[in-house]
Amino acid sequence: NPAPVRRAPEPVMPTTARAAFVLIGLFAVVRFLQVGGVGAATTFFNVYMDRELHVATSTIGAFQALAKLLGVPIALAVPLLARRFGNVTLVLVASTMVALSLLPMAFVPIWWVAGLSYVGIWISTPVRYTAYTILSMERTPPGRRGTMNGAQEMLAGLSFALISFAGGLIITRYGYTPLFAAGSLLT
Q1: What span, in angstroms and rounded, lies between the C-alpha atoms of 104 and 132?
Q2: Cβ of 11: how many Cβ atoms within 10 Å?
Q3: Do the beta carbons of residue 86 and residue 11 sit within 8 Å?
Q4: Among 6, 16, 29, 101, which is least packed, fewest CB within 10 Å?
């Protein structure tokens, strides 16, 4: 028996320009928060593994390659997953996976645990990104979709920039644990 296909309810479109911009603002702020954890991991994983855990460069590269390689089939599976579970569920599950994947990196200073945490973050990210983009575009009037995308990408970039800047300061004063824990909380 094939699994039943879940049909998403028809999205409710905002009826005024103000409502559309409020919606765009809300989706953009959520994107800002989602990207915080990913930004902490991608910006500081190499440095953490090298300077804190004393892992060989080749091992760090192997974890990064594995993470990106596994991300490909998972990204290709997103349409199937979205049909089965819906975009809202995918966004929630993938965001939770990123947040949970950061916790071992924050609290278990063992190189292979940090490496697997990084892999968990990277295999969850294409699911969250794709499902969230589709979800936000479905709920945005066609004439405002460019603005929605631009606002989201702007705040995602700002999130990466802020976590990179603040992360360097946090690491210098308090270490990696508070940085990765904060990234988990943001996500």
Answers
A1: 25
A2: 11
A3: no
A4: 16
Rounded to whole angstroms, the Cα distance separating 114 from 106 reads 8
CA 96 to CA 105: how far, in whole Å? 15
Q: What is the CA radius of gyration of the chain?
A: 18
Whether the Cβ atoms of residue 52 and residue 105 lie closer than 8 Å to each other: no
Q: Is 126 in contact with 90 (CB distance < 8 Å)?
A: no
| DSSP structural state of residue 53 | T
- The 10s digit of each residue's pLDDT in 68-103 is 999 999 999 999 999 999 999 999 999 999 999 999
- Reported as a single tens digit per residue, the pLDDT across 32-75 is 999 999 999 999 999 999 999 999 999 999 999 999 999 999 99
Contact 127, 90 (CB under 8 A): yes
- Cβ–Cβ under 8 Å, residues 56 and 46: no
pLDDT at 138 over 70: yes
Residues whose CB is less than 8 angstroms from the CB of residue 16 and which lie 6 or more positions away in sequence, other chains included: none
- CA gap 147, 78 in Å, rounded: 24
Here the tokens at position 3 are: 């699994």
Q: What is the largest CA-CA distance in the chain?
A: 57
Q: Rounded to two decimals, what is the model's pTM? A: 0.86
